[in-house]
Structure formats: structure tokens, C-alpha cells
Predict the structure.
Amino acid sequence: LIGLSVDQVYSHLKWIEWIKDRIGIEITFPVIADPLGELAALLGMIRPNKSTRPVRGVFVLDDKGIIRQILYYPQEIGRNISEIWRSVNALQTASKHNVATPENWPQNNIIGSDVIIPPASSVNDINQRYVQQKEGQIQCFDWWFCHKPLMPQDT
């Protein structure tokens, strides 16, 4: 976690102090000062034809440094930390298990906390899906849309 702001370093120091004194939370992550807005512009956080104030952005990178998700929040809207953590968990689960997660996972209205198995890419894969379904390993709406539970230790 790294914070980036177009404010000066002294503003960051005061903000960190204020959060600790008034809210009781210690900021333990680095906060980068970008007073000229160069990095913010490079990251697309300065919107053309808008004020020079950057939008609030969340960039989720994987362990290889690849950007996996970008969320932009206008100044008028607060960030949803629960959704950010849900997204990070879903990305990690999808990568670790070669699956996809449905909307609102792990509380999807149709398949609950199950994960989606990648679509079959051959007739052999389709036949294997039918076998897995008969054995109760997976559930399918059709051969191209199958899902399965993950064991709690796998998430």
C-alpha cells in the first residue's frame, strides 16, 4: 500500500499526525508527495477539462507488478474499502486457482461463494465436465458455465 498525493510533504506529515491524534489510527504505509502532479497525470488521475485536483485512484498490482485493477473515485464520492478488499481477495483467488469469481463474490445471488471454472475448450473437456458433474465435483448450468466450491483453506 502506497499513498500518493499532489500535496506537499508537510501536508502529509500533518495529515498523518491528525489521523493518529483525532481518529486513533496510525498510518504505517508510505505517502508520496507529487506537488507538480506529474505522477498523478501519468497515472490518469488528472482529468482533462476538469480542475487540477486529481481524482482518487486505487491501483491494484499483483506480485509481479502488473496492474490488475484500477478504480477511480471522484472527489465527491468516498472510497469503499470493503469493495477494494473484496476485489483484491477475488483477484488473488482467481489467480491462485485458475478460476473466475462472479459479481459480488463471495456472496453471489446465484452461486453463492462458488467460483466459476474456465469454459471448456475441447470436446474432451466438455465430456470431462459431464463426468465431474455426475460425480458431484462441480455444478453446471451447461457445459460452458460450471462452478464449484473452494475449500475454506483454499481462499
Summary: The beta strands are 3-5, 31-33, 56-61, 67-73, 115-117, 139-142, 145-148. The first strand starts at residue 3 and ends at 5. The mean pLDDT is 90.
